[in-house]
Amino acid sequence: MRRNDIRKTARRSRRSAPLRKVPTGIRGLDELTGGGLPQGRPTLLCGSAGCGKTLMSMEFLVRGAVDAGEPGVFMSFEENTGELTTNFASLGYDLKAIVAQKKLVLSFVHIDRSEIAEAGEYDLEGLFIRLGRAIDSIGAKRVVLDTIEALFSGMSNTAILRSELRRLFRWLKAKGVTAIITAERGDNTLTRFGLEEYVADCVILLDHRVEGQMATRRLRIVKYRGSTHGTSEYPFLIDAGGISILPITSMGLECEASTERVSSGVPRLDVMMGGKGYYRGSSVLVSGTAGTGKTSLAAHFAHAAVARHERCLWLAFEESSSQIIRNMRSIGIDLGPAVRRGTLRFHAVRPTICGLEMHLVTIHKLVSQFKPRVVIIDPVTNFAALGSEGEVKAMLTRLIDFFKTQQITALFTSLTLGGTPVDATDVGVSSLMDSWLLLWDVLNGAEHNRFLQLVKSRGMAHSNQLREFLLTDDGVELRDVYVGPSGLLLGGGSREALEALEKAQTLLRGQETERKGRELGRKRRAMEAQIASLHAEFEVEQAKAARAIGQAQTRAGVLAGDRVQMARQRQSDAGPSGTRRRPK
Amino acid sequence: MAPRRTVNPAKAKRPKPADVEQYALRLYVAGMTPRSTRAIANIKEICEEHLKGLYSLQVIDLYRQPVLADGEQIIAVPTLIRKLPMPLRRLIGDLSDRQQVLIGLDLKPRQ
What we know:
The complex is a heterodimer. By secondary structure, chain A is an alpha/beta fold. Chain A folds into two domains: 16-113 and 122-245, Rossmann fold, CATH 3.40.50; 261-480, Rossmann fold. Chain A has 16 helices and 25 strands. In chain A, the strands form five sheets. A nine-stranded mixed β-sheet of chain A has the order 5-4-7-8-3-9-10-11-12, with helices on both faces. A nine-stranded mixed β-sheet of chain A has the order 17-16-18-19-15-20-21-22-23, sandwiched between helices. A two-stranded antiparallel sheet of chain A has the order 1-2. Chain A starts with a helix and ends with a helix. Mean pLDDT of chain A is 83; it is low at 5-14 and 577-581. By secondary structure, chain B is of the alpha+beta class. Chain B has one domain (4-104): Glutaredoxin (3-Layer(aba) Sandwich), CATH 3.40.30.10. Helices cover 30% and strands 25% of the residues of chain B. Chain B contains four helices and five strands, in the order E-H-E-H-E-H-E-E-H. The radius of gyration of chain B is 14 Å and the shape is globular. Chain B starts with a strand and ends in a 7-residue tail after the last helix. The A-B interface holds A 107, 109-111, 115-127, 129-130, 132-133, 151, 154-155 and B 28, 30, 35, 38-39, 42, 62-63, 66-67, 69-70, 73-80, 88-98, 100-101, 103-104.
């Protein structure tokens, strides 16, 4: 076994072993770096004041000490051990206890230029001795030097300092400890004193920017020798649990597509989707104008989820949780018990409290803590105020991708402003969604009615019919749509009125037909009379013509008779007399 | 190597007149490198010249007593600390810059 290991190691080293990495334990950073910081090498962590350098490096040590069993040394040049302990206690780290367990050494290096005078050549062996002793005392694997640049403000001989720092980093490598060296951001350089020259293996830049009055902390890996890494700027969050970074773009489209179906909570809507509802892990968009019942539809879905004993996270960006619970009671959905049981959690905030990225980080964090199977975002359109359309869409893409990888079925409501086409969503996200329900109002006379259309539902047979969408005391009800004679959609009271109207119209149409029938009869009779008269006329003509023919024939006979008479008188042999003499 | 108590004239010539200040000096070095030896020689020379009979000097090798590096906040070596008279003074380097040493020990007014 042991020999096997050695052989394996040997084989690996022949193939030039891949860079070993030390997991930091900081949420997101390990994904971003593909496993953590380079093992046994120093990493430079730079950034301006107050951007979280000390916290990130301390979290690296604490996670190492507590979770990975790797003791660490924190050498502070700025805060003394008492200050450090107090500051981190407010973040939930009990440094004193970790120190007592011999998993952490806090070492404060005090430098005060006013106390120090220089008189000749020196080196920093004192620092080496202290660090070496601290490392050896607990067998430390991780070291943080925060902020070693303070040396430059304490001593003036930069030539000595630079060569000593170079020696220090070499020495740390030789010691085999994974180190973080923090440094202040310079004006045009990564660090004020050019430490990046010495620490070349991995450089991480922290940033704290204010854009549109919203501050966002961001992290970027400037370089990581011998390793691929995410190159974008990633937002990160500091809160009671430490640091969370969101490596968003590293997610591909490789998430598993479930064939399991989950009910929408509205039986008739399920029927419209082949009787089963949405796919698990799909994303559903419910868009519509104000007051069309988007939140009610979301409440049904949430209620169905908790009834299946699934956890549901409701991110409310418009109403408080108690307002939603009260309002949903009016349509017969009581979300209160689920909240008390802890299966439904509301996270109600105004979207403007932080930037888009921070929202994304917060949602990530909530999801990884609460582990819901259903998430409701109500409404998603409120993000539009936080950035350009492109930014919002990018953020939502990441969010949807994240939900998909977690197999979370997500329902987004989207408010369409009056006047815009109903199928235009403000944030242009409909293409990202698997199912899209469209709700809209139709004004009929003195009332308006709601209609629901299932615009799309990927990968399932779904109804192409509109439904009338009713909010009753028992929740949402879908009814067949009544299409009036002129092709208008009708619902509610006007449906009944128009049904009566149509009946009247049918009656009217009957009478018209009758009238037309009579007219036709009359016309036929007129025509027949005309035919009869023509017929009579014709008969008269015919009689006349027959008489004329008779007369003409008689005249011809008389004429022939006359001629015979004349011939007989002239004693002629010819003619009819001869005929008469012919033997019989 | 134990802290070398090279000279302790203060003990030898007790009691001293109250108006004369006593100098308590500590020199921290890391091993007997040429730089350390140079520093020791320099400080001895200066003390003999300016503070004869008024000073005590301890030379401490941090390799032998690394604990003291933390306690005394030593970063650079050699470091000379003037414990007495107050206030505390720190001088780093091999003390070859005599002018700086004299200023640092308040034996010569600062410009």
